[in-house]
Amino acid sequence: MNTLAFTLGEHRAQLTLKISTYPNGNLAIKLYEKDHGILIFWETLTTNLTGFRPDHCAFINIKAADGLFPAWLSDNHLAEPTGQILESDGCLYPEYLFYGKELDALDHEGHTLYIRHQKGELGCHFERLYIALRRLAREINGFSYTDYSGWRCLDGSSSTLPLWIEASDPSHGRKFIFTQKGPALQTIIRYADGTEKQCIYRRKEDMAGDLMTMFQDELRVYPPWSEDRRKRYEY
């Protein structure tokens, strides 16, 4: 595992990065200094503030190390500022985008576990909806979707939503917005004539099922247990 030098006053430390996740899946990085072959905790580089952060993004612990972490990250080509700043308890925390290759070189095991967590956290939680969207994008002419889950903020807020997907269905003149706010799952359907329909769900499976029902007459039908269906991992 590689180390990085950090100078704080007269003390020059060789720091080891350890990568993990916070309970909500956000990127967590702690710094350690080796003493006689033993890693001793030195400082926390990131801080877990409100909302879900995009992949490899984290707010920097600006209160630590005399506020030198942002410059240190830039000097070592580890991360770059995203431009987002969050105020908490009178302190301004900048958000940084970390370079995946650099993190992997510094802590391959920790970074690998973080990546696996990121791929599964949202995708598995709403697995049936993602499977449905992927199938519709393949089989319905013009259907497409954009996933903003975990990184787009609500208007006037720094909070993000665990589910926020917008889909376009031009062949039927409608758009979909799938969100989760608290315990409520919601699908909004906006039609070309300006009308709108809202559906509230308690179960994720019902949200995905209703979406597929709207297209059931246009989707390909596969024979039960067919080899073609098995290979395609269809909905």
Give an overview in words.
The strands form three sheets. Strands 9-10-11-12-13 form a five-stranded antiparallel sheet. A four-stranded antiparallel sheet has the order 1-2-3-4, covered by helices on one side. A four-stranded antiparallel sheet has the order 5-6-8-7. The chain is α+β, with helices and mostly antiparallel strands and 235 residues long. It has helices spanning 69-75, 100-106, 108-125, 127-139, 204-213, 227-232; strands at 4-8, 11-21, 27-35, 38-44, 46-47, 57-60, 79-88, 91-98, 144-147, 163-169, 174-181, 184-191, 196-201. The protein is elongated. The protein has two domains: 4-122, no CATH class; 126-232, no CATH class. Helix 2 packs across helix 3 (108-125) and helix 4 (127-139) runs parallel beside helix 5 (204-213). The protein is 26% helix and 38% strand. Strand 12 and strand 13 form a beta hairpin.
What is the arithmetic mean of pLDDT? 85
Topology pattern, helix = H, strand = E: EEEEEEHEEHHHEEEEEHH
Helix content: 25-40%
Structural domain tally: 2
Strand tally is 13
Helix count, per DSSP? 6
Distance between the termini: 42 Å
Radius of gyration: 22 Å
Strand order of the largest sheet: 9-10-11-12-13
From the helix content, strand content and strand pairing, which structural class follows?
alpha+beta
Q: How would you sum up the major sheet? A: 5 strands, antiparallel
- Name the shape in a single word: elongated
Low-confidence stretches: none
Strand content: 35-45%
